[in-house]
Amino acid sequence: MLHVFVVPIRPLLRRFAPALRRAALAASVASLLFGIACASPTLPLPPPAVPTVSPSPEAGKVHLQSVRGAEANAIVVVVNLNPNVPNDKRVSGAQADATGSWDCDVTAARGDVLEVTQEFGSQRSAPIDVQVP
């Protein structure tokens, strides 16, 4: 003999309806807030800190160094803005280490202005200008 149990659904729905409505409202609000957060623009990548400039062991170059002056693992790009420097010697750079420290040599002379930026992922920072002393 097979016994069939019938559970009345309406009393259960009446009993749990307010809790179900609150849960549905909370889920809707959470998904709305999550959607707004995803659509928010990210903060721009800040420019790197001003590096120290010193003579390089290589003639016609200067050495730039920055300790914790960039985002960890960012690509640091240095461009000499002096139009008298050949194009193939105007650009240099380095990849920052896990602490954001980096150093590189670039062709430059006293008075030249070096534009320094950092790139991380698909973002590029605003440039800083460093004049060679």
Structure commentary:
This protein has 133 residues and is of the alpha+beta class. It is 23% helix and 31% strand. The protein has one helix spanning 9-39; strands at residues 52-55, 61-66, 75-80, 91-95, 102-107, 113-120, 123-124, 128-131. Strands 3, 4, 6, 7 and 8 form a five-stranded antiparallel beta sheet that branches. Strands 1-2-5 form a three-stranded antiparallel beta sheet, with no helix packed on it. It is rod-shaped. The model has no long low-confidence stretch (mean pLDDT 87).
Strand content: 25-35%
**What are the low-pLDDT stretches, counting only 5+ consecutive residues below 50?**
none
Tell me which oligomeric state these chains represent: single chain
Structural class by SSE content:
alpha+beta
| Amino-to-carboxy terminus distance | 100 Å
- As a whole number of angstroms, the C-alpha radius of gyration is 30 Å
CATH secondary-structure class of one domain: Mainly Beta
Main sheet overview: 5 strands, antiparallel
CATH superfamily of one domain: Immunoglobulins
- Give me the CATH architecture of one domain, please: Sandwich
H/E element sequence? HEEEEEEEE
What's the pLDDT, averaged over the residues?
A: 87
Q: What is the CATH fold-level name of one domain?
A: Immunoglobulin-like
Label the overall shape.
rod-shaped
Tally of contiguous helical segments: 1
DSSP strand tally: 8
Helix content: 10-25%
